[in-house]
């Protein structure tokens, strides 16, 4: 069954656990509709990261899937324009490798930048990283979601500047950059003018594995899902043709 771009809505969660088909079926039965899964940084082994096989498992079970890139460990999380370029290029390449590509470029899907634990916040460091990352991802035809965690290294004004960046990239709109707050009180994080598209909650156990539930607040995050089955006529006649009973005179 082909995949389609689908807006993320309803109950969602994010996890660093690779879901088996039975786990994907279980979370759907529990009422979840979407999952966010991880892609690697340059030089990292994929490990439990999202794969093409898992994309099939999740979408066949009925989940909408979107992607986020791992952040660096806090002790190594030194950011720059160069890291933004390298990280974004690596994630876009990996996303394409596992089939996380919008089937129709008129409806984009989302890649997420995880901004947390930044060791060197500043306009020429963390903001430069986020701006370059967003530029590469937007230019590649994806939407951008910025995760605002602890020590995210961004201000509210810099978040707004990331939205304004869309005006400089052909084919982009302001809805192509959105924001996702971690499990903290949003008052402790930057407050973008456009508000939050998603709000994370503290980690819990969902169907036997660790995950973070997420509230979806704006219909601007898009992932991949299985295409709905085409409508089928209730009989064997060609579409639009009346059913003719051969015994009718």
- Specify the CATH homologous superfamily: Glycosidases
Number of strands: 11
Summed over residues and divided by their number, the pLDDT gives a mean of 91
Give the strand order of the largest sheet, numbering strands 1, 2, ... along the chain: 2-3-4-5-6-7-8-10
Please tell me about this protein's structure:
The protein is α/β, with parallel strands linked by helices and 249 residues long. It contains five helices and eleven strands. The protein starts with a strand and ends in a 23-residue tail after the last strand. The longest helix has 17 residues, at 81-97. The strands form two sheets. Strands 2-3-4-5-6-7-8-10 form an eight-stranded mixed beta barrel, surrounded by five helices. Strands 1-11 form a two-stranded antiparallel sheet. Helix content is 24%, strand content 24%. Helix 3 packs parallel to helix 4. The protein has one domain: TIM Barrel, CATH 3.20.20.
